[in-house]
What we know:
mainly alpha; two-stranded antiparallel sheet; 2 strands
Amino acid sequence: MSDEDHELEMLKAKRLAEMQKNITSQSKPQPAAEQKKTVPFRDTLISKLGYRGMEVLQNAERQFPNETKMIVDKLGELIQAGEINEELDGGKLLALFRSVGISVRMATKISVEQDGKFVSLSDKLTTKDDSND
C-alpha cells in the first residue's frame, strides 16, 4: 500500500505542478495584451498634423478611402516607432500623397485686395466687367 500511496502522491504533485504552470502561463499574456493596446494609427497621425493637415487628410479620405487608409496606417506606424518626429502640415502631407500617385484635389480660392477688403478673384473680375459695360 505504501508504494501505491507514494505513486499517488507523486501523481498529485505532478498534476499540481502542471496546473500551476498553466495558471502562470495564462496570467502572463494579460499584461502583454495590455501593452499591445496602442493608440490607433489615425489618431497618432492626427496628433502630428499641423496647419491645414487635417483638411488635406479629410479630402484624401473622402476621395481615396482605401489608399488613404494604407498610407495613414503606415504613417501612424512610423510615428509610433519614432521614425517620424516632425509635424506634418498640409503641404507636406499633400506632397506625400502626390509622390505616391494620389492626386488629392483641394478647394482653392484666390483673393485679391479691393478697397481695403479681400474679395475673390471671380468677384473682382465680374465687377470689373460690369463697370466696363
